[in-house]
Structure formats: C-alpha cells, structure tokens
Amino acid sequence: MNPNHVVAFSAKPYDEAYLVQASTDDVNFRCYDLNLNSTTATMANGAQIVSAFVNDDLNTDTLEVLAAGGTELIALRCAGYNQVDLAVAKQLGISVVNVPAYSPYAVAEHTVALMLALSRKLPRSYNRVRDGNFSLDGLLGFDFHGKKVGIIGGGKIGRLVGERMSAFGCEVIIHEPINPQPCIDQGFEVVALDQLLMESDIISLHCPLTEDTRYIIDTGAILKMKQGVMLINTSRGGLVDTAAVLSALKKHKVAYLGMDVYEQEGSLFFDDHSSEIIQDDVFQRLITLPNVLITGHQAYFTKEALRHISETTVANIVAFVTQQPLINEVKVRL
Ligand code: NAI
Asked: Residue 82: which of 261, 217, 250 has the closest Cα?
C-alpha cells in the first residue's frame, strides 16, 4: 500500500467528500463507513496512517491490531480523544493527532439552539401547528433575560456560549479549575462547582471527558441544583449519569434536558436505526418526555467545521509524512 494512503473509519459520504476536497497529491483516503474496533482494525492492515472519529473504539485490542498491521499515526478527525488509550498507543509507538478546534462557533450555536428550543417548546409547537392545533396550553416558556447560566468548562466553546448568553441578558458564571484566566479576562465570574450547581437556572457542560469529569453530573450534583433547572450537554455523554437525570426529570427537579451527546451513543448515533427496536430503555424513556430534546451529536455539523476538520487532518498527516513537528499531537498525561 502507498505509505501515504490513509484508511479512514467512521467516514460517511459527507466526510469523504470533504476529505477528498482537502487531499493533496501526497495524501489520499480510503474511507469506510464503519466504526473502528478490534475486528474492523484488520481492514487497515498495511496502512501507516489511520483516521478515526468520536465513537471509534481505540482500546488496547484495537491498537495492537493496528500496530501489528504497521500503523504509526492515528489522525483523529475530532477534538476529544477519550476514545483512545493514549498510554497503550505510546507503548506501541503510535502517535495520535487531533483537530483541537474545528468550529467552536458551531457547537456554541447549537448549544444555544437547544436552550431556546427547550425553553420555548419549539418541537411541541412545530408538531401542533402542523396538526392544525394552535392551542398554547403547555407551551409556556421563560425569558432568558435575568437568568443565571452556569458553564462547566471555560474553554473555547464554553466562553462562546457565555458570550451568547450574556447577550441575552443572562448572568454567566463559569467553573473552570484549570485555566480560569481567559474567563476572567472576558469578564466572567469564575466559581466553584458547588456554587454553580446551587445558583444556576441553566447549566451547560463544556469540559472534556476525563477520569476527573466522568459523571460530573450525578445524583449528588443534581441534589445541589435548583428545582426546575435546565441541563444542557453538548460535550460528551459520559459527563452525565443519564439514569440519575432521568430520575430527576420524573421528579421535576430537572425541568429541561438538552443533549447532543449520550453516554451510550456509540451503538446509536450517526446511523439510521428507524426500522429497528432500540434496546436502550433509558434512551427510549428519555425521548418520550416532552421536556427532553436530543440531537444525535450534530453540534459540530456545519460546512465550516467539516472543511476545517478535513484541512487540519490533512495538514496533520502531511506533517507526519514529511517528519515535521506534530503540532496537534495528543500526548498521554503522566
Ligand atoms: P477546550 O479544551 O477549549 O475547553 C475545555 C475546558 O474544560 C478547558 O478550559 C479545561 O481546562 C476545562 N476543564 C477541564 N477539566 C475540567 C473540570 N473538571 N471542570 C471544569 N472544566 C474543566 O475545549 P472546547 O473546544 O471548548 O470543547 C469542549 C468540549 O466540547 C470537548 O471536550 C468535546 O468533548 C466537546 N465537543 C463536542 C462537539 C459536538 O459536536 N457535540 C464538537 C466539539 C467538541
């Protein structure tokens, strides 16, 4: 196989179109619309470079198959890298690169779209009007103006959401334990997690999924929240204990839930399951609730983001092939 031939997994036709557009003479993609796991990894046999996406499973078994097949670079087409066992990749001599920011605007805008659609009950009103039902019963919303918005994770996306909610006249507080200065420089109040949980009318998650943040929203965190809080997660499903939130929704403690990510999304999202019986009872129960709005990991999905993902992925690969520094290398934290 041509050494610069890249085997790309989880590549839908729309991904392939953008990857092909971004390709150079040196880099060409063989795309599979299949998740990468220890079984499918054999399809990359002989490929020095493999490209993967958010729900690919780059655990020890997968990485060992890839390494045995000659893979030396994994080019993630996403920012998050929680799906890769970085320590094992390092041991096997595989470098990992990502696309650190493709369009923080896309995710921030989708986050606000979920908030607005939930508060003004747009999915219900859309269905009613199509059915000739113009009753307003059950559609009562609330003003964002004057509400307190708590953002967990004051990075690129979190701060953009903060700016947008400030423009609505909200008071924005941010929990950012690692790098608070950019938040402070933008005039946001940085607070402890407990204060954010106790004071916020709307809570939005924008931190990465790590061992520290897994289930950052669990039963204990929900207990601290205001009655009737709105919870939004466009970050990673594993940040939220979904069963705990379902229970809080039933008790009206959480009054609105917007999710673009789900902890068990790997077997559902990005594919059409409309002819199947979905076996995930928690997910199925959630979608019956009128105050829950779920989108299938589409927050990033804009033309601008797909272009940026493809161009950065190709640049990462060219840097590897030409032995330039890998500026987007993801390294294991010791
Ligand atoms: P970023 O790296 O700029 O910001 C993340 C922030 O979270 C950092 O400032 C970091 O210090 C902070 N953080 C780390 N641990 C924390 C903790 N325990 N509590 C609070 N904050 C903590 O990342 P960016 O670009 O803002 O993305 C945020 C997340 O959005 C990503 O990790 C990814 O999971 C998610 N994402 C979702 C997409 C979607 O389509 N739904 C697309 C792109 C990103």
From this structure: 261
What pLDDT is stored for residue 256 in this prediction? 98
How far apart (Å, rounded) are the C-alpha atoms in residues 241 and 224?
15
Instruction: Tell me the Ramachandran region of residue 188: left when phi exceeds 0, alpha when psi lies from -120 to 50, beta otherwise.
Output: beta
Q: Which two tokens stand for residue 276?
A: 């199947």
Mean per-residue pLDDT, 146-158:
98
Q: Which CATH superfamily is domain 2-102+302-321 in?
A: NAD(P)-binding Rossmann-like Domain (3.40.50.720)
Distance 177 CA to ligand 1 centre (A): 12
Structure tokens at 240: 């939220």
Q: Return the SS3 of 117.
A: helix
Do residues 63 and 94 make contact, with C-beta atoms less than 8 angstroms apart?
A: yes
In the block, residue with structure tokens 């030409």: 322
Interacting residues of 57 by C-beta distance below 8 A, sequence separation 6+:
35, 36, 37, 38, 83, 266
Fold equal for 2-102+302-321 and 104-294? yes
Confirm whether 128 is a catalytic residue: no
Catalytic residue among 77, 110, 164, 236: 236
What lies within 8 Å, CB to CB, of 251 at 6+ separation is none
Q: Where are the domains of the chain?
A: 2-102+302-321, 104-294
Q: Is 222 in a helix, a strand, or coil?
A: helix
Cα 26 → chain centroid: 30
CA distance linking residue 237 with residue 235, whole number of Å: 7
Atom of ligand 1 nearest to the CA of 298: 40
Tokens standing for residue 17 = 């179109």
pLDDT of 186-245, one tens digit each?
Answer: 999 999 999 999 999 999 999 999 999 999 999 999 999 999 999 999 999 999 999 999
Q: Which residue puts its alpha carbon closest to atom 20 of ligand 1? A: 153
Domain 104-294: homologous superfamily in CATH = NAD(P)-binding Rossmann-like Domain (3.40.50.720)
236 included as an active-site residue: yes
